[in-house]
Design a protein that fits this description.
Layout: H1 5-32, H2 42-53, H3 59-71, H4 78-94, H5 104-130, H6 136-166
């Protein structure tokens, strides 16, 4: 989708507010009900959405800002997430013509595949940083349950993000 700069800024600020809401819920409410082992990484869903749907040279900068916001709620470094987000962006750009998220099932499968790319990248970088690849599967496995749940709810999240990012799309004929 192509939008004017002012529309992108407004939609991005709304997306940041949504991310903050998700981060507060996952950082406070989920541990309060006993879900401590796994995290729901809503920032990954938002980045996948932007990589697939947004055609803008500002997208890498948006990924960086989203990772900065996420890093306030996580011990995960913003640099690792930004690198993974850019890998998703490049992959999505290569597959843009093949990605038709016309059904909920296709959205779930696509989101799960991109999450696998994300978590493989993050796990490899973490293992490189700790110089121990014997923990590769343990680290990777810690992402799997949350990613399955996120894939299941991804059509709803993508619908919500689509509403945010489409709100001004129709008013813009000149795009970025």
């Amino acid at each position: 989708m192509r939008m004017r700069l002012s529309d992108i800024i407004i939609a991005f600020l709304m997306t940041l507010a949504l991310l903050l809401g998700f981060e507060v819920v996952t950082a406070t409410l989920l541990p309060a009900i006993g879900w401590n082992e796994y995290r729901l990484t809503f920032h990954v869903l938002i980045i996948i959405f932007l990589a697939i749907r947004l055609e803008s040279p500002l997208t890498p900068w948006m990924i960086l800002i989203l990772q900065f916001v996420h890093s306030a709620f996580s011990i995960e470094g913003w640099a690792i997430g930004t690198l993974s987000g850019l890998a998703i962006l490049v992959s999505a750009n290569y597959l843009k013509d093949l990605l038709q998220l016309t059904s909920a099932l296709m959205t779930m499968i696509t989101v799960q595949l991109f999450q696998i790319i994300w978590f493989l990248t993050v796990t490899c970088i973490i293992c490189l940083k700790i110089s121990d690849f014997s923990k590769f599967m343990m680290i990777l496995w810690s992402f799997v349950p949350g990613s399955i749940l996120l894939s299941i709810i991804s059509p709803l999240i993508f619908w919500l993000l689509g509403r945010i990012w489409r709100s001004s799309e129709s008013s813009s004929s000149v795009g970025i």
